[in-house]
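User:
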Amino acid sequence: MPVMWLIFLILLLPFLVFVLFFQVAAFSFTKLGLSLQGAVLLFSLSLIGGVINIPVSRRRFLVEEERLFPFPFPFLFYYPPRVREQVIAINLGGAVIPVLFSLYLLGRTPFWPTLVAAAIVTAVAKALARPVPGVGISLPAFIPPLVAAAAAVLLARDNAAPVAYIAGVWGTLIGADLLNLHRVRELGAHVLSIGGAGVFDGIFLVGVVAALLA
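Assistant: Predicted structure:
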């Protein structure tokens, strides 16, 4: 019997983690001025949009590969270089919706403190971001939201939560993703999706955590 309960708890754990994350995200959104219904709607749209990637760029490039030629007549064999296509896309739930929501909040926050806070997060994200072949852009998860929250509290204490959200979203998007687009070929991926993990992507998470901390 204890074994059955243990298996049940292990199977239930992902659901409990998701529910906890949903509660945290909803609470964070209510701090940004949304009603509970609005917070649920925003989270639901982000969750659904997480499966939608919008292609914004395609490019083809040649891949030179070292090949073994049969001995003793290597000159009789010719292998043309491979042509690969790389697609850069932006995820609806993990990038587009957070950006649109941050633009909505921008009309309710002081412009210059928000801009300075976003610039600070951008600089930190750019310094810490590293391209990982086969994975994407790697960035320490909790440093950008901590920086965004601290900058928001220092620069706009009365509007700390929305300023932190905007700075976290835009700083991560620009510093970690957009300023590293020139290095996407190093990643060796056919598709690079900005915000591709949906509600579990860095852009979405940084905004939520930053607003919560602030």
